[in-house]
Specification:
Two copies of one chain form a homodimer.
Chain A (H helix, E strand, L loop, with lengths): L18 H14 L4 E4 L5 E2 L8 E5 L2 H9 L1 H10 L3 E5 L1 H14 L6 H9 L7 H12 L3 H5 L20 H16 L6 E5 L5 H10 L2 E6 L2 H13 L6 E5 L9 E7 L10 H11 E13 L8 H6 L9 H8 L4 E8 L1 H17 L1 H7 L2 H20 L3 E9 L25
Helix pairs in contact in A: 1-2, 2-3, 3-16, 4-16, 11-13, 14-16, 15-16
């Protein structure tokens, strides 16, 4: 995290805000649409709607932070929050939900400004070297870090909560079971997984469904962890973890699955991925792609893009279709699980906050705040519909080996207990 | 059906095929990929793969028909079949399934030729006047005609068969119930339906779910029939049938539904439809669009386009998304019901054939054959994946009033009995 900001001294509260400062504060509130959130400047001056109970206060601690915020709120809020020059008093995620909703109502989201930004922004193009660098940036922070706030199996993608009150552990197992059910796995099938994280799904598929799996990932730390786990569980004869880009997959497979990888590559990379699917999927094969997405094409929040996920681009459905439509694939089912990701992120944020001290000791407080904001901001993005989560099931065009209805997905409760527990 | 061909005299079988005729016959079989179907010329010469049992024979009854077929098989097969210059000995639908499959395997479908055709073909653009004319062409042939082969409620869209062996009547009721379930109708809600056919769904929604419905259709005969039915069932205070283009809908509604209309308007008309949805859907509203579609953009079969559905264009998912993505709508669920349409069409074809004599008496034998080919060809198109059937559920971006999972769609069996029966 060499890019992360060093904390800077906060100016004293004695210095009074100027007329210009107060004008900027009001313009900022105009821009974000006066959410039920109080804006507080370093001298204690406050800006809020009179008619609403405020859910939180955003405290701007110095003039420079206010100026930067006004210039580029989307990016600078994260910068200034990370280093403590902006503080939030109250529930951070709830505060951001209010801001996102107000932005939408004020027409800032999806409006002209966004479209202009989108036209100007180049879609990230991730060649293999760049992809590797991006992934190292995020995933090679250290497995110990993720262990502090993910579930016990280290599943770092949207969980599925058949019942809203289940635990995160249960919901991650239910998600893996749900994905397997959508894929109708059968013993002996050959499965390939593009982007396998710490290997939980690959091992689950092999253990629970008797399939063999080749699982690809470019994160060295994750692959090392996954291989160790496969050996420990005696699954290393059926699950092969390969440290390589998913675009280099070789072989023939009955099933293609990718959970949480597509959003890390740009739309420009889809043709290469599509040709991999076409090359490796058997004629009767089927697949599932699970990805963060959007209701309309648009760039990821610039701060998240810069500080958390370089190269990430959550596609709209029409953008996702560029994977399938030109390549003889038929889409059978698309499900939007947006609110399941909001719930997943709430769990992560709660665990993260409970381990905040340990994160600060492992890194520093700026890092702790940066990741806290990312998690809370993601809760807000999925809660308010700024981001979506799509699961797409597909096969080759004209293959009639499809379930007659989707009823089989729901006939039996999903398992939500690890066989080990 | 002023465009339909008059039967022409079939040449005598005595005239021998020439070397050029036989060369053309082989080129034709090359083009369609030598399906397990025999090609027979007027003099009895036969062309078939040696290794396969043939399922049917396509008999070309004169040299002119062969020439026209070779020049433009996609279009002329329908022309020549309708007027009896081509005959099929065996199951027509099964024969066409084999031909479609062989075409796909030979790379003729979705291949370069198709793409060229697509680039050359202008997408149909249906302004209101044209739309009216197109709809009259098809739907104002007379209700008595459709009564011969549709279900008793005259539902002329894909049915839903929770159990594959249910009757067509049951499957059409199950389809309406399934659509209502996807929309989560509540008593008192205001529903608008764009393209309501003979009114079965509008009446079903009002009767079974206590909603009020405004239902739009530009076919005068269908609207007259639907109004009569509403009065007879005492639902005319809650269901209003309006003879107008769906693009002229006015008012505010909790639910927007359109079953089997989108495929009749060109992609160029989607922005107008999208602005209707945006204008009339309440903030918390939801919607469902059910439409024939394709796995990739491409033109409808030129013969169907000319003789059966002028102006029709089945969109791919990415094309459908142009309705939703630019307009602040969020797609929640897409289901592909392709094989349910193949099954529906098999039922229609069976009933149609059982009433073939009556159709020929109402019109003439050319008309009977033309519609028979359309129904059998549609069985083949949906069976082989040339056409798809998509149901898309949507609401406004950021609306969190969505079901937690899709399990509610399958928890209880769908009703499949008409309350009247």
């Amino acid at each position: 995290m060499s890019n992360a900001h060093k904390p800077v001294p906060v100016r004293t509260l004695e210095e009074k805000s100027s007329k210009a400062d107060r004008w900027m504060a009001r313009r900022l509130m105009d821009f974000i649409g006066w959410p039920p959130v109080q804006l507080v400047l370093w001298d204690g001056s406050r800006y809020a709607r009179e008619d609403a109970d405020v859910v939180a206060a955003i405290i701007v601690r110095d003039r420079g932070a206010l100026r930067r915020l006004v210039t580029n709120p989307e990016f600078e809020f994260g910068e200034m929050y990370s280093c403590g020059r902006i503080e939030v008093d109250g529930d951070l995620a709830e505060c951001l939900v209010c801001v996102y909703r107000a932005l939408r109502a004020a027409g800032q989201v999806g409006g002209l400004r966004k479209r202009l930004l989108h036209a100007l922004a180049k879609h990230p193009h991730n060649d293999e070297a760049r992809a590797r660098e991006n992934i190292h940036h995020h995933y090679d922070i250290g497995n110990d870090f993720y262990r502090l706030w993910l579930d016990e199996q280290l599943v770092y993608t949207c969980a599925y909560f058949p019942a809203p009150d289940m635990t995160l552990e249960q919901a991650q197992i239910a998600k893996m079971a749900y994905v397997c059910r959508k894929l109708r796995l059968e013993p002996g099938q050959r499965v390939v997984e593009a982007g396998c994280g710490w290997g939980a799904l690959a091992l689950y598929m092999a253990r629970q469904h008797g399939v063999t799996v080749k699982a690809y990932n470019i994160s060295r730390e994750q692959i090392a962890f996954a291989r160790q786990r496969a050996r420990r569980e005696g699954l290393d004869d059926r699950v092969e973890f390969i440290e390589d880009d998913g675009r280099n997959i070789e072989g023939e497979f009955d099933v293609f699955v990718s959970v949480g990888m597509l959003e890390h590559i740009g739309v420009d990379s889809y043709p290469a991925l599509a040709s991999v699917i076409d090359r490796v999927l058997s004629d009767r094969g089927r697949g599932l792609i699970h990805s963060i997405g959007r209701d309309r094409p648009g760039p990821l929040n610039s701060w998240i893009q810069r500080r958390i996920f370089p190269g990430a681009y959550p596609p709209s459905i029409s953008e996702m279709m560029t994977l399938f439509e030109p390549n003889g694939l038929s889409v059978l089912d698309i499900e939007n699980l947006r609110l399941h990701y909001a719930r997943t992120l709430q769990h992560w944020l709660q665990r993260y906050d409970a381990n905040g001290d340990r994160v600060a000791r492992m890194f520093d407080d700026t890092f702790r705040r940066l990741w806290r904001l990312y998690l809370a901001g993601s809760v807000a993005a999925f809660s308010t519909g700024t981001l979506q989560l799509f699961q797409v099931v597909f096969n080759r065009s004209g293959n009639n080996d499809v379930p007659w209805t989707r009823d089989y997905l729901y006939r039996e409760p999903l398992p939500d207990q690890s066989p080990a527990s």
